[in-house]
Each structure stands twice: as structure tokens, then as C-alpha cells.
């Protein structure tokens, strides 16, 4: 099921628009700007008009970044997108990090449990709804392009980037579920973008910092990442994001002895030779963000920008407005061919035609977007989205280890509990969302003692020696993406907490990970571990219910969590 052909009218619009563009306008189509980095207030219509006349970009990134947090109101984004659509000479696309539902980018919309939770539920029908509801909410808020789903594989337990942003470690499951999410998105008006080609999750390092390496052999790559990519392409994914990730078998030694890794974002062998020619992808190729360390180390600005475009990239993500001058000069002196530029712009315009953005109403309003009411979808549909999110929350919670049969806890016998905080990463840094877990315990009428200071290390043992006893002890762990850059593991004070709790002699801690599924690697002595994958509000509530036997544990671990 490749992408459906354009209608005669759509194709005529593409070709007519292509021919009407100046060189600068052609270049602008291949740049995606960041709405949050504009050099003036975003609602300054006169400023936006002047900006687009000088820098006629083809798409904007809006909403919060996945490595930070959701931001803003849906109605504001919708109005802003309509205003820009009305100002721009050519129709715009609006992308966002809608990885875990539209609420992962826009605070007023519905945030879903992450992809790893969806993998733990392992249900294609749920995956399709995940994409569908992301699309309905996202398009209503002005988005037409989701930089999702993640199609990476968690093959290295120490990988710090994709911990809960993928479908686990098994290619077959990742292929099935990512394709279902993609279909749900695209059949409801939102372009999907599979990422990060050729595949994150093998390296233990972070491509935000350096170029990372997918070190699999050609045979192993095709049986894993290649299998997922082949499924996404055959199912008609509209766009693919390349990562600042080298692929050893295709580029190893290409630059000579001692050469540095060649990220896919500058590699013609990976982007054109592998993705386009060998795998047959004919949609839009988008680079990952060009302000990341894995790209910056390639060369000076001009070199890395031209290499990124010439390797087969259609849209460069956040190159900055210097991009226009560099590309104009490169076309003029022959380093970039006009034919190659027009080929990319044709693909971009075809994507816009498929999404119907070329047919926006007067004033830029999107006729395909559902209405918003009080910054949400209409009540009936809003309830459906939130019910779906809660259903997934209940389906994902996984009992990884229960060696002593400690779970489920007996509600009638548990009165006083201890919470050993494993989420205090460094001095002075706390993640207050763990209060959701503590509040759920208190709501049950439990007396809750909290240990979140680990000097001296023997504090817990001293409490025991004073005669304090608890009916249950919990060791909950949470670390948000980039909460401690370059790791997803318990480090710093969180690691000290692991040391501290081994001083106890009467406590059998129940580990609960609201983040990495690999807590047993760092806390192998845990007899009991529950993986919940996120501090999604419904997930936390239902995790506590599962701990006390009020609902069953339904999830299956999407990774090999045991050591």
C-alpha cells in the first residue's frame, strides 16, 4: 500500500505552484522553522508578514519539544497557524512532537502513555486509535505533520534517548504497532514521520551530544531496523526523519582511516542509496534538528548544510535563516543543482496536496480540522479520547518480577508505608510529578513516610533500629527525558538511594519504574518490580490499584527486562 496517487487537479496544483516559485521560494520550501525561536512576538502579524517576505519558509514547528514539555493552548496554535496560512504566498505545514498524543506538545490536549506503554499492551487496534486520536486533536490545534511515531528499537539498555519513545526491542512488534499508529494518523488528516533512520537504540550515547553509531551488521540491520522501515514504507508512510546516526556497514571507512562517523543526515549512501533506492521510499525526507551535537561536529555551517541537502534530504529541520544565503550561493556556483532542489520541492508540495492544505479557506482556516470548544474537541469526542488514554494506561502496567509473591498487597493489612524516592537525581533537583504517586497512597488513607535524603546512608537502618516498621515499602523511579542528560538510569542521589536502602534489614522494597524498563539492571536485588513506563496521571492511579489487587496487571514487558 504505497501512497495513493494525487488527483489530476492536485498534480496540476503541484506543478503550477512549482513553476511559479522563485529560487528563494524554492529554497524556503526545504526549510522548517521553529515558531518558538522567531525574533519577535509570535502574534505580531506585521512582523510575521515581513518575516515571510524575507524568509519564505515552507513549514513551521509548533508546540513543546518532546525533550522539554508540552506548552500552550490549542486554540492559540490553531489561530496562529490560520493567520500564517493566510499571510503566506504558498501553503504551510505545521509540525510538532506529537509522539505521545497531541497533549505531548500542547498542554490543553490529551497526553497518552508513551509508545513503550503501547508496546506493553501490544494491541494493533489500540495503536490505530493512538494515531487516530492524535490526528483528530492535533489537526484541530493546527498541526498537519506529526514528527512521530518513533520506529527505533531498544537494543541497548543504556541508551539514554529512546527509553520509552519506541516499541521495545523486537522488530516484529515495532513494525506492527508503528504501522498501525501511522495509519491512524494519516487516515485522519495528519502526516506521520517515522524516525530516526537508520535507527537509534544500539549506541549507549546520545545523538544530541555526538554522532552516535548503529553498529549492527548488514544482515542484522535488515532483520531489525530494515524490517520496521520496510513495513512503514509498504504501508505508505508520508515522511521519514533521518538521525545523526552513523551506520557502520554502509559507511565504515568511507572517509579513510581514522575518519569520523558519517551521520545519516549527511550520508548519500544512507539517505538516497538505502532509504530511497534500496527500500523504495518516495515520500519526504526530513532531517532531525540541525542544532544537535551529532550534526554540528560534521563540519562548518556551510559544509554541513550543503552535505545535508545533497545527500537526499528534502526538508532541513531548524537550520536557521542563514540557510537562504548559503543555498542561494550553492545553487549559483553549482554545488547544489536546481533540478535536485525542484525534486525536493515537488515531494513537499505533493505532501501538502495530500493533506489538503493547498485548499485552506480564506483567512487560512483549515476546513479539514474539527472544531474546538473550551480548548478541547467537542465534549463527546473529547470523552472518547480521554477514555482511550485511560484504557491504555490500564492495559500497559506490567508485573516484571514477583519472586516472593508480595503482590498484590492486602488492602486490609497495609496501614503504614515507606516511599524511598529514587528520582532525586542531583542535589537541588527534584521531579515534583512523583507527588502523584504519593498522593494516591495518601488518598487510600495510608500513613506515608518518605525517605528522600541519603546522608547518612544508614538513615533507613536507624529508623528500623528505633522500632519503626512498615507494611509495605515502595522504591519508585522516574527520570524525564534529558532530566539528567546522557542517561536514563538512576544516577547521582538516585544511585545513592539504591545503596542506602540495602542497609535495611526489615524492608523488602517494591520497585516501580515510571521510566526506564531496565531498573533490574541497576537494582538486581529487587524481588518485586512493576513497570508503568510514565507518570501519566491515569497510569499512576491505576498502578496503585494494581499494587493492591483491585485491577489485574495486564501488560507484557516489551523488552527483556530480566538480567
| Gyration radius, rounded | 25 Å
The structural class is: alpha/beta
Query: Segments where pLDDT lies below 50 for 5+ residues?
Result: none
**Would you tell me the overall average pLDDT?**
94
Distance between the termini: 40 Å
Overall number of strands: 16
Domain Glycoside hydrolase family 3 N-terminal: 43-351
Keywords: Glycosidase, Hydrolase
Family: Belongs to the glycosyl hydrolase 3 family.
Protein name: beta-N-acetylhexosaminidase
Short description:
The protein has 563 residues and is α/β, with parallel strands linked by helices.
Descriptive report:
The structure is a single chain. 39% of the residues lie in helices and 11% in strands. By secondary structure, the chain is α/β, with parallel strands linked by helices.
Give the SSE layout.
Layout: H1 8-20, H2 23-29, E1 31-34, H3 45-54, E2 59-61, H4 74-87, E3 93-96, H5 115-121, H6 124-140, E4 145-146, H7 171-186, E5 193-197, E6 212-214, H8 218-223, H9 225-234, E7 239-242, E8 245-247, H10 248-251, H11 268-278, E9 284-287, H12 293-296, H13 301-310, E10 316-317, H14 322-333, H15 338-355, H16 379-396, E11 398-402, E12 416-420, H17 435-443, E13 447-451, H18 459-465, E14 472-477, H19 493-501, E15 509-513, H20 519-522, E16 528-531, H21 537-547
Parallel strand pairs: 1-2, 1-10, 2-3, 3-4, 5-7, 6-8, 7-9, 12-13, 12-14, 14-15, 15-16
Antiparallel strand pairs: 11-16
Helix pairs in contact: 1-15, 2-14, 2-15, 5-16, 6-7, 6-16, 7-9, 16-21, 17-21
Amino acid at each position: 500500500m504505497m501512497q495513493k496517487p494525487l488527483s489530476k487537479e492536485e498534480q496540476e496544483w503541484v506543478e503550477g505552484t512549482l513553476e511559479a516559485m522563485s529560487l528563494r521560494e524554492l529554497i524556503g520550501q526545504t526549510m522548517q522553522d521553529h515558531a518558538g525561536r522567531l525574533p519577535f512576538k509570535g502574534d505580531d502579524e506585521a512582523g510575521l508578514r515581513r518575516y515571510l517576505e524575507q524568509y519564505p519558509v515552507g513549514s513551521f514547528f509548533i508546540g513543546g519539544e518532546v525533550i522539554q514539555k508540552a506548552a500552550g493552548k490549542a486554540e492559540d496554535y490553531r489561530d496562529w497557524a490560520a493567520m500564517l496560512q493566510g499571510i503566506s504566498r504558498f501553503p504551510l505545514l505545521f509540525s510538532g512532537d506529537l509522539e505521545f498524543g497531541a497533549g505531548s506538545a500542547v498542554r490543553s490536549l490529551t497526553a497518552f502513555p508513551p509508545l513503550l506503554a503501547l508496546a506493553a499492551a501490544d494491541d494493533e487496534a489500540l495503536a490505530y486509535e493512538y494515531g487516530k486520536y492524535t490526528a483528530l486533536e492535533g489537526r484541530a490545534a493546527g498541526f498537519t505533520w506529526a514528527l512521530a511515531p518513533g520506529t527505533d528499537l531498544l537494543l541497548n539498555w543504556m541508551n539514554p534517548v529512546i527509553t520509552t519513545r519506541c516499541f521495545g526491542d523486537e522488530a516484529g512488534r515495532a513494525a506492527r504497532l508503528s504501522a498501525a499508529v501511522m495509519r491512524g494518523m494519516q487516515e485522519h488528516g495528519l502526516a506521520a514521520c517515522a524516525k530516526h533512520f537508520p535507527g537509534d537504540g544500539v549506541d549507549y550515547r546520545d545523538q544530541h551530544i555526538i554522532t552516535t553509531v548503529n553498529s549492527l551488521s548488514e544482515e542484522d540491520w535488515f532483520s531489525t531496523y530494515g524490517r520496521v522501515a520496510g513495513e512503514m514504507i509498504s504501508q505508505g508512510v508520508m515522511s521519514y526523519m533521518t538521525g545523526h546516526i552513523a551506520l557502520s556497514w554502509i559507511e565504515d571507512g568511507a572517509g579513510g582511516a581514522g575518519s569520523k562517523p558519517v551521520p545519516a543526515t549527511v550520508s548519500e549512501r544512507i539517505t538516497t542509496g538505502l532509504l530511497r533506492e534500496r527500500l523504495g521510499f518516495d515520500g519526504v525526507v526530513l532531517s532531525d534538528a540541525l542544532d544537535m551535537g551529532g550534526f554540528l561536529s560534521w563540519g562548518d555551517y556551510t559544509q554541513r548544510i550543503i552535505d545535508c541537502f545533497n545527500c537526499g534530504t528534502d526538508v532541513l529541520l531548524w537550520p536557521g535563516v542563514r540557510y537562504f544565503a548559503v543555498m542561494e550561493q550553492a545553487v549559483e556556483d553549482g554545488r547544489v543543482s536546481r533540478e535536485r532542489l525542484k525534486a525536493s520541492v515537488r515531494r513537499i508540495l505533493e505532501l501538502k496536496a495530500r493533506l489538503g492544505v493547498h485548499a485552506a479557506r480564506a483567512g487560512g482556516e483549515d476546513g479539514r480540522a474539527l472544531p474546538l470548544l473550551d480548548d478541547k474537541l467537542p465534549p463527546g469526542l473529547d470523552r472518547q479520547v480521554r477514555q482511550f488514554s485511560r484504557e491504555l494506561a490500564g492495559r500497559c502496567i506490567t508485573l516484571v518480577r514477583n519472586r516472593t509473591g508480595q503482590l498484590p498487597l492486602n488492602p486490609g493489612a497495609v496501614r503504614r508505608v515507606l516511599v524511598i524516592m529514587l528520582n532525586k537525581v542531583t542535589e537541588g533537583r527534584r521531579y515534583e510529578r512523583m507527588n502523584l504517586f504519593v498522593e494516591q497512597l495518601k488518598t487510600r488513607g495510608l500513613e506515608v513516610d518518605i525517605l528522600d535524603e541519603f546522608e547518612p546512608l544508614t538513615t533507613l537502618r536507624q529508623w528500623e533500629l528505633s522500632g519503626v516498621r512498615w507494611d509495605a515499602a515502595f522504591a519508585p523511579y522516574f527520570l524525564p527525558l534529558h532530566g539528567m542528560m546522557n542517561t536514563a538510569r538512576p544516577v547521582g542521589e538516585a544511585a545513592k538511594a539504591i545503596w542506602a536502602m540495602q542497609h535495611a534489614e526489615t524492608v523488602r522494597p517494591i520497585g516501580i519504574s515510571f521510566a526506564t524498563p531496565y531498573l533490574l539492571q541497576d537494582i538486581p536485588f529487587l524481588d518485586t518490580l512493576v513497570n508503568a513506563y510514565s507518570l501519566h496521571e491515569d497510569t499512576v492511579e491505576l498502578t496503585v490499584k494494581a499494587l493492591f489487587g483491585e485491577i489485574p496487571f495486564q501488560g507484557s514487558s516489551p523488552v527483556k527486562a530480566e538480567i
